[in-house]
């Protein structure tokens, strides 16, 4: 399904400005060299940069890319230092709503007591505008993150940087397959968003979806990136969300629909 979806999106790319070398396939450098792929710049807050990962070519690469053969791998040091890449994208139509998507995965598969949960962040200009759900460095299944925005400028610099979820650990993640498309030109499931009402949650709230889902799964993560609840077989556009046994605090909810597209939101439980 992911490959057929990518092919469909590729056919729509002429409708909007998109990333140069969004698949990262044009990255002809040796492994473990801090040099950005063609069309991108290193944009890290650490002394090192994003590295090329390629199965059967680069050491420690044990998972194939989500698109093609190559993808990027980065390290986050606490919540303020991380490796990443960026690109200046032009040609946006002011007032048009776009959806930006990319694929992400755990980035390091050797046990290390210092490694924990991480998140990829999207920085639009100088503002941190969107984050993936927390993922563990051992996670070996690709997920898709999406960020929906309405253009107020004709161009933006986008940075994608990985951070750990807390200051006392390291985080590691892989990233691949960057795309930007006008929201209205995409199949409806690609433009899905969700909102929890009311939020903060006291006893029961409702997840309000832009488009109904079928056979979706809902996962709840605590601030440490630990999955504390999972519900499957979710269908419809309005989904009840019960507090249940959740303690007061900040949580992240992730909805994975039948097209393997992820929506995520931050919630507060009082």
UniProtKB/TrEMBL annotation:
Which residue windows are transmembrane per the record?
none
Secretion signal span = 1-16
Annotated Secretion system C-terminal sorting domain ranges read 198-269
* Keyword flag Signal: yes
Q: Which UniProt keywords apply?
A: Signal
Q: Does the keyword Signal apply?
A: yes
Q: Name one Pfam family in it.
A: Por_Secre_tail
- Which protein is depicted? T9SS type A sorting domain-containing protein
